[in-house]
Specification:
globular; 18 strands; alpha+beta; about 15% helix; about 375 residues; Thrombin, subunit H; 6-stranded antiparallel beta barrel; Serine protease 23
Length: about 375
């Protein structure tokens, strides 16, 4: 429990969250809409019978640091089609596999600092050292009381029955991390009867979509880039949801700041909010030192910027909190918490899963 001395700080935080901004229009960081490519399902076939083998891991650790990811070769068009193909787990236990086509996108249209012509490099020290994912002073805030829990943006955070967190991104849809339902080889125990708690009552998931990039890869290499999943609920949750947004470069975020709320397992029964500055980034991952504990994985990482068209401030989900990375180089350990960025292609895919058509997914 927070001390009384922490209460004024929490009060100031709420003022920052909910009071109108007084920034001049010239200093506002704005959402910049861009044309989104099209990711369309092409063929769906029955998949193998799933095996719900292991318990869900509430954290994902990788020894591959930003430089490791940046040295990975740029994926080709055919690679991307393979990574964005997806599996759908239905509540009756049926599994389907869907191939996709990609239109209006060229992976060679621009040079990304996240890639070079070098081959993929694995960081040394591949053993995983479990540590608290707290960096210095614990800057997390426990959100208590229904008045705050039911108030946007805290109200979009949900708890999954597998122990992870998620974010409401549609009337029936929850965005979370892929590792919360699939360990890279099999669906985890509880994935078939997955439930979501958005408002003090559990709602069953009807369908769960997981990209093949996660299933084909692993947390040390390409898989972490695709550590996201979308759940479709059996009935509407009747709460306000948060819009998706394409992840902008970190330097375009106001104060380079990102936010997310989740259900950290060291504070059972509490929603925990945090914010921090974004650090390094690759084309698919965003590194930061936001304090977090297992259970927060799957939380939607969001930013708040000015929407020039609607003339209002808008929060949008720009990533999914994945887990912890620890790597040792030349005797010095480096640690990061990492989020999967919503790229234009991922936006196109997730938006299609939500909307069921590409026409409503052309601007992000």
């Amino acid at each position: 429990m927070r001390s009384q001395a922490a209460l004024p700080r929490f009060g100031s935080l709420l003022c920052l969250l909910f009071l109108p901004s007084v920034l001049s229009s010239s200093s506002r960081r704005q959402w910049i809409l861009q044309r989104i490519p099209v990711v369309l399902p092409q063929q769906t076939e029955a998949g193998p019978t799933p095996h719900f083998v292991n318990e869900a891991r509430l954290d994902v650790a990788s020894p591959c640091d930003p430089e490791c990811h940046k040295k990975a070769p740029r994926p080709s068009y055919w690679d991307l089609r393979s990574f964005l193909a997806y599996e759908t787990l239905h509540s009756n236990g049926q599994l389907t596999e869907t191939a996709v086509g990609i239109y209006g996108y060229s992976p060679y249209a621009s040079t990304s600092p996240a890639h070079s012509s070098g081959s993929s490099v694995k960081a040394k020290g591949s053993h995983v050292r479990r540590k608290r994912q707290i960096f210095g002073h614990d800057g997390r805030f426990s959100i208590a009381g229904q008045n705050f829990l039911l108030k946007y943006p805290f109200s979009v955070a949900v708890k999954l029955s597998t122990g992870c967190s998620g974010t409401l991104v549609g009337e029936r849809h929850v965005l979370t991390a892929a590792h919360c339902v699939h360990d890279g080889k099999n669906y985890v125990k509880g994935a078939q009867r997955l439930r979501v708690d958005p408002s003090f009552q559990w709602i069953r998931a009807k369908r769960t979509h997981v990209p093949k990039g996660w299933i084909k890869g692993n947390a040390n290499e390409i898989g972490m880039d695709y550590d996201y999943a979308l759940l479709e609920l059996k009935k509407p949750h009747k709460r306000r949801h948060m819009k998706l947004g394409v992840s902008p470069p970190a330097q375009r975020l106001p104060g380079r700041r990102v936010h997310f709320s989740g259900f950290d397992n060291d504070r059972p029964g509490q929603l925990v909010y945090r914010f921090c500055q974004a650090g390094e980034e690759t084309s698919d991952l965003l590194y930061q030192h936001c304090d977090a504990q297992p259970g927060a994985s799957g939380s939607g990482v969001y930013a708040r910027m000015w929407d020039g068209r609607r003339r209002r401030w808008e929060r949008k989900v720009i990533g999914v909190f994945s887990g912890h990375q620890w790597v040792e180089k030349k005797g010095t350990s480096q640690e990061f918490n990492v989020a999967v960025r919503i790229t234009p292609l991922k936006y196109a895919q997730i938006c299609y899963w939500i909307k069921g058509n590409f026409v409503d997914c052309r601007e992000g």
